[in-house]
Design brief:
This protein is of the alpha/beta class. Helix content is 40%, strand content 15%. It has twelve helices and twelve strands. Strands 3-4-5-10 form a four-stranded parallel β-sheet, with helices on both faces. The radius of gyration is 19 Å and the shape is globular. It starts with 6 loop residues before the first helix and ends with a helix. The structure holds uridine-5'-diphosphate. Uridine-5'-diphosphate is lined by residues 169, 183-184, 187, 199-201, 206, 208, 243, 264, 268.
């Protein structure tokens, strides 16, 4: 598995290890963190290789004797992808190419790629099906989409048993807290812990298809054991929730409103009919339960950066600069 030291990857490691499987993680620990895997210290079934997915030699070595590859490693924040597209291209596109080639050389039984719902940009229809138009709004979304195209092309040309899952707003314990301004749960939980107001974007009526990480892991395992290949699937809860509702569930004592960001959709909502029909997967965890688990693990965010409207304005300056229409 690539990216096993990251948020979703580490939960997938937990699930595979609890099934008694042998897991080899490749991670360069720029996004991921060793502490996400510390629960498996000294477990002989887990091997961790510190390497970059864009390094062909390292990947050939890491994959040569594995049956299934889960390719989760990626750079994932929006603003840095605008500021430094080269690093994103290298990790997310070159890294996928190199991982695919290594997997092909090894003759793996299964290759599961994690793609992003950001490929839909601002879609025309909700819920959004897989055949909606592809409209990446920033380099992160584009590079994840290019990676997906590689994966599906390898399935087409080389009959690689590969599949792509388009994840919608995955959240859960250990959700990333890198130094950069990122996904909303980490931002809000750190603010809650610090007793600071939650920074709600726009008027908070925008909705997101928040999907609990155990459901995402279930989808990855389902994809890994299916025979279908060359397909992409939406992975979402199919239950979009507004940011205002989220702040209620978090029982936020105080809220402050910050400007809406250009290019961001008012709603993300996965049409999950395809995966229900073809693979028999659907999400199980309602937002209330997911948020409850997050609050139970809130100490994880104790040392996370606490954002405020000024620091967010500063951190997102390039977002507004490049993506605004004016
Ligand atoms: N959001 C917010 N305050 C923040 C960060 C995000 O209200 O400080 C909102 C944002 O407008 C979006 C949702 O939370 O509607 C999810 O944002 P995130 O960046 O996690 O994911 P994405 O916008 O890429 O779906």
């Amino acid at each position: 598995m690539t990216g096993g030291g990251g948020f979703i990857g580490s939960h997938l490691v937990d699930a595979l290890i609890s099934q008694g499987r042998k897991v080899r993680v490749v991670d360069n620990f720029t996004v991921g963190h060793p502490r996400n895997l510390k629960q498996h210290d000294r477990n002989p079934n887990l091997q961790v290789v510190a390497a970059d997915v864009a390094d062909p030699k390292a990947m050939e070595e890491a994959i040569k004797d594995v049956e299934r590859v889960f390719h989760l490693a990626a750079l994932a924040d929006i603003v840095p992808s605008i500021q430094n597209p080269e690093a994103y291209f290298r990790s997310n596109v070159d890294g996928t190419f190199v991982t695919l080639q290594a997997a092909r050389a090894a003759g793996v039984k299964r290759f599961v790629y994690v793609a992003s719902s950001s490929c839909y940009g601002i879609p025309d229809s909700y819920p959004t099906p897989e055949d909606a138009e592809i409209r990446p709004q920033y380099p992160y979304a584009l590079t994840k989409r290019l990676g997906e195209q590689l994966v599906l092309h390898w399935a087409q040309v080389y009959k690689m048993p590969a599949i792509s899952l388009r994840f919608f707003n995955i959240y859960g314990p250990r959700a990333r807290t890198s130094g950069t301004y990122g996904a909303v749960f980490g931002v809000f939980l750190a603010q809650l812990l610090a007793g600071k107001p939650l920074t709600v974007v726009g008027d908070g009526t925008q909705r997101r298809d928040f999907t609990y990480v155990s459901d995402a892991v279930g989808a990855l395992l389902t994809a890994a054991s299916s025979q279908i290949f060359g397909r992409c699937y939406n992975i979402g809860s199919d239950q979009p929730v507004s940011i205002n509702r989220l702040t209620e569930l978090l029982e936020a004592p105080e809220i402050v409103y910050i400007p809406k960001r250009p290019g961001e959709p008012d709603c993300t909502w996965a049409d999950t009919q395809r995966i229900k029909t073809e693979l028999g997967w659907s999400a199980k965890v309602p937002i209330e339960d997911g948020v409850h688990h997050m609050l139970g693990n809130i100490e994880y965010w104790r040392d996370a950066p606490v954002w405020n409207p000024d620091s967010i304005a500063e951190a997102t300056r390039d977002w507004f600069k490049y993506l605004s229409d004016e």
